[in-house]
Input
Amino acid sequence: MIKLERRPKPAYLSEAVVIELTQKFKNDGSSVWNHAQIKTPLLASSNEKCAFCECSLSDESKYMEVEHFRYKNLYKDSVVEWSNLLPSCKRCNIAKGVHDVVTDPLVNPYDVDPRHHLSFRLYQLRGKDKIGISTVDALDLNNSDRLVLRRFEVGEQVFRSVRVAADRLESYKNSTTAIRKNKLLNIVETILDECQPRAAYAATTATVALSDEEFLEVITQLRALDLWKDYLEEKLLAAQNIAFQ
Ligand SMILES: [Zn+2]
Output
């Protein structure tokens, strides 16, 4: 989970439309939130990922669900309230189910940096306080098959790429050709790209990469060799912004 920025309320959700849709939901329970002008800006605000587990929703956007942070059948007046809606995968939506965030608060990544309440260890999220513990629990964020294993796989990919980067650094130091320099900078950029907010499971990759001593050493040496570039620095800062400590 990473901090997200809520987009401005879509023009579609005018006061009149909100009243009309809310009444319709109260009358017949219809899925009034299933509208492109609600779903599209929600998806864009989360980099087309589930706001909770960071799985990609772009390939199968039909599987994106509009999650009501305050449960829709308990808080019917918030059923199309913009600040109550999040883009979620089906599995997180089902896991959260009828959970009442008013009596048992959860992390809403649009309102708070998840790192205030959660930490990361051995590919598992740990609650640092009651809200964090409830969040992991209610959303099943340590489900071994769908999340812990997936985080482990992306973490392994980071380790493999870091190994390649370290080899390419040695290779460049042996012979400072332009080709070797470019290959070295490319693999470092590739690693950082996987740590950007738009990448699936970016909190995991950023945390793994930025706590990997070999990767940090590569960065240190690139700086010493005057090969570190502004575009890499920007990506490094973005990764630091979402990595768990
Ligand atoms: Zn999810």
Q: What stands out?
A: The chain has a mean pLDDT of 96.
